[in-house]
TrEMBL record:
The keyword Disulfide bond does not apply. Residues 23-282 form the Fatty acid desaturase domain. Keywords: Membrane, Transmembrane, Transmembrane helix. This is Acyl-CoA desaturase. The chain crosses the membrane at residues 25-44, 157-178. InterPro entries: FA_desaturase_dom (IPR005804), Fatty_acid_desaturase (IPR012171). It holds the Pfam family FA_desaturase.
């Protein structure tokens, strides 16, 4: 049912694009496409977890077709990165989602930044959402880097073919239908909305939750629950975030389909209470506030030691 709704939405956006023609209202279509592509990415994510179809290979075929052919990112790159994340969420040296990439998620990375990167890092919490406007471009870049890198990549040529076909149709239609400036604006808006929506959907799940040191050992339940955060909102949040609002349950039962996560939540909350393991759930706005404060706190590690007023006074003397 979900894929049918998304296909209708995509068809409506394409129809609107054709009917509007040479008009700056096309930027509304671009924004809509950013939202639709993100929803397709959620569906590919669910397929990667074997939640959609009965067999693993069928889910992989579906996930690869959606990720590469519709969204334009590498399914193999995503699978490799995401599998490592699920095995060790928020663990230093193990979770690629907390590796440095413009944003520093641990103080050790923040302290290494120099020059312009240090300036960004010091205010990275406030800059986090503006920087997400570039995340769509970053996702395409990193997935293509994997496909062109040396070493084995499952389905490399299939994905390259799907991505090439997708971008040929996408860019071909845009530059054929729209004036040059409008075409670039259309692509920019679509990528910005896609990046912000993707980042705003994944950031509340783990950012600002405990970081596990590289040498620490935790049992599976504690590791997954302590590092994950749910977002309240029920079915509306589930539709908006593709089920990622039930992040605790998703990490405990990664193959569980989206409709069952709400029921699992009640069981997991009670079990966590009996084990005295903290179970975190906040509203979406509270979670964003936590993320911003956490990133700014980490960013203080990039502060120039001579920013201290007392030290500056002695320097002048």
């Amino acid at each position: 049912m979900l894929i049918g709704i998304l296909l209708v939405a995509l068809g409506g956006a394409i129809a609107g694009f054709i009917l509007l023609g040479d008009s700056w209202f096309q930027l509304l279509i671009a924004g809509a496409l950013g939202l639709i592509f993100t929803q397709f990415a959620f569906l590919a994510h669910e397929a990667s977890h074997r939640q959609v179809l009965e067999s693993g290979p069928a889910n992989d075929r579906m996930g690869r077709a959606i990720a590469a052919g519709v969204v334009g990112i590498s399914y193999s790159w995503w699978m490799t990165k995401h599998t490592r994340h699920h095995a060790n969420p928020n663990k230093v040296g193990k979770d690629p989602d907390i590796d440095f990439d413009t944003i520093s998620f641990v103080e050790a990375d923040a302290a290494k930044q120099r020059g312009i990167m240090a300036l960004i890092t010091r205010k990275q919490g406030y800059l986090f959402f503006p920087l997400l406007t570039l995340e769509g471009l970053n996702l395409h870049y990193r997935s293509m880097g994997t496909l062109f890198a040396r070493g084995p990549v499952k389905g490399r040529w299939i994905e390259l073919g799907l991505i090439a076909a997708r971008f040929a149709v996408y860019f071909g239609a845009i530059f054929w239908m729209l004036p040059l400036g409008m075409a670039f604006a259309f692509i920019g808006v679509q990528l910005a909305v896609f990046g912000v929506y993707m980042g705003a959907s994944f950031a509340p799940n783990h950012k600002g939750m405990p970081i596990i040191p590289a040498d620490a050992k935790l049992d599976f339940f504690s590791k997954q629950v302590l590092t994950s955060r749910n977002v309240s909102g029920g079915m509306w949040a589930s539709a908006l975030f593709g089920g990622l609002n039930y992040q605790v349950e998703h990490h405990l039962f990664p193959n569980m389909p989206r409709p069952h996560l709400a029921k699992a939540r009640e069981i997991v909350r009670e079990y966590a209470r009996t084990l005295d393991v903290p179970y975190t759930e906040t509203t979406i706005m509270q979670s964003y506030g936590i993320v911003i404060r956490y990133l700014n706190r980490v960013g203080l590690a990039a502060r120039d030691p001579f920013d201290c007023p007392m030290v500056n006074q002695f320097r002048r003397v």
